[in-house]
Specification:
Layout (H helix, E strand, L loop, with lengths): L5 E6 L3 H12 L4 E4 L6 H6 L1 H20 L13 H25 L3 E3 L3 E5 L2 E4 L2 E10 L3 E3 L11 H4 L8 E5 L3 H13 L2 E6 L10 H13 L3 E4 L13 E4 L3 E3 L6 H4 L22 E3 L10 H15 L14 E3 L5 E5 L2 H5 L5 E8 L4 H4 L5 E8 L5 E7 L3 H13 L4 H6 L10 H4 L3
Parallel strand pairs: 1-2, 1-6, 2-3, 6-13, 8-9, 8-11, 9-10
Antiparallel strand pairs: 4-5, 5-6, 7-12, 14-15, 15-18, 16-17, 17-18
């Protein structure tokens, strides 16, 4: 591995890029990584982590309201948005420092500057030309705003608002839209959510989509389906937030100069080993638009390092990936929804349970949990597990192991229940 400044140059220090860089260095490669913003990427800086912190904050309103049913008397709560944002920022600063330390301790050189491709082995960064035997693109994706839309913000700016809006319109029906609609609603904003489709959470099981829509409306969100921002001319609001999708952040990266092909979805085209069309150029994470989730990018980064520097060619299995939506209530799923399963299997057994959580037998809150199993009738293999309700992501993470291993419905039935829990319903469903 001689004749180059580095064995590996990574562009983008998000979760996937950092994992690939550290593991490759562990295999003995000389590694540099460039980042034009803060180390940690979308997940740590402007995505999963700060969003989850805001989601925690949003749940406290209901907790305060429900406390009286359990004998607690508390003063009228007062919410302080600037305090929440300051505390969130402090935690993000800490994590940014942690990521930098991880790179340093792994002997990875961090260059805090924008890098662009000059050819398949050369990048321009920090005013100089740097060569590498292998280049890895891990530049992520960026929020997209509909062309010609009225002024508004995206999730990036939502984390830094100077004040909580009294009235906000959230445009979109995917993960981010449902999560931020729940966050703003929980913190006290009046929320109108507009989605042009027939139902939110496209790609999820149909029962899950309908159930969450009902729960969002019961929580106070004015969810309007079949509606676009053009329909909002008469709406009185302080702010519009667009959560209408993300696109790979590849503009100006120099892909053409390096011979890197972009597919019809506008993402970097790669094979099963994350190799791009140019020799010794690879890409992972959201800029490839395969499955845009942080754990997937991390797994792709690890597989890249194993393949290129570890001597163990490792493709990533993009099937049966669990996912969660941190709305209120949250959603989680692994495997196939009913509609997708019917397109692939001749006959199914569908098990479904809808019930009031035990917590709300005392509070009287109108909240229902949905649990669902999709089973191949012939083999009795569980094809999908789905849940809308409190702790759904925690529960489905464990169910994902069983589904990934090919567990059958009788396997679920043989598991002993933990009582009283919501999770026990997954091993008790018989209808």
């Amino acid at each position: 591995m001689t004749g180059f400044d580095f064995d590996l140059f990574v562009i983008g220090a998000g979760s996937g890029g950092v994992r690939a860089a550290r593991m490759s260095a562990g295999f003995g490669a000389r590694v540099a990584i460039a980042e034009e913003s803060r180390v940690g990427g979308t997940c740590v800086i402007r995505g999963c982590i700060p969003k989850k912190l805001l989601a925690y904050a949003a749940h406290y309103r209901e907790d305060f309201e429900d406390a009286a049913a359990y004998g607690w008397r508390v003063p009228e709560p007062v919410f302080d948005w600037p305090a929440l944002i300051a505390n969130k920022d402090r935690e993000i600063d800490r994590l940014n420092g942690v990521y930098k330390s991880l790179l340093k301790n792994s002997s990875v050189e961090l260059i805090e500057s924008r890098a662009t491709l000059l050819d398949g082995h050369t990048v321009a960064v920090a005013g100089r030309r740097v060569t590498a035997r292998v280049i890895l693109l891990a530049v992520g994706a960026w929020p997209e705003v509909p062309p010609g839309a009225p002024p508004g913000i995206t999730s990036n700016e939502a984390f830094h608002l100077p004040a909580l809006p009294e009235r906000i319109v959230v445009v979109g029906g995917g993960y981010v839209a449902c999560e931020f609609a729940s966050i703003f609603n929980g913190l006290g904003s009046k929320v109108i959510q507009l989605y042009r489709g027939e139902q939110i959470l496209r790609g999820f099981d149909g029962d899950v989509r309908a159930h969450l829509a009902g729960e969002l409306r019961k929580s106070g969100i004015d969810l309007r389906l079949g509606a676009t921002i053009a329909d909002a001319s008469g709406i009185d609001a302080d702010l519009i937030m667009y959560a209408t999708g993300r696109r790979p952040r590849i503009e100006g990266l120099g892909l053409e100069a390096a011979g890197v092909r972009v597919n019809k979805q506008g993402a970097i085209a790669v094979d099963q080993f994350s190799r791009a069309s140019a020799d010794e150029v690879y890409a992972i994470g959201d800029c490839t638009d395969r499955v845009n989730l942080t754990p997937v990018a991390i797994r792709e980064g690890a597989a890249f390092a194993d393949t290129v520097f570890g001597g163990r060619p490792t493709p990533v299995d993009h099937e049966t990936i669990p996912s969660a939506v941190f709305s209120n209530p949250p959603v989680a799923a692994v495997g196939l929804g009913e509609e997708a399963a019917r397109a692939r299997f001749p006959a199914l057994d569908i098990y479904k349970s809808v019930f009031r959580p035990m917590k709300h037998t005392l509070t009287g809150r109108d909240r229902k949990t949905l649990m669902k199993l999709v089973v191949d009738r012939s083999s009795q293999r569980v094809l999908g597990a789905h849940m809308v309700g409190e702790d759904a992501p925690e529960i489905i993470q464990m169910a994902a192991i069983a589904v990934k291993l090919g567990a059958t419905k009788p396997d679920f039935d043989r598991a002993m229940a933990i009582h009283p829990t919501a999770a026990e319903e997954f091993v008790l469903m018989r209808k």
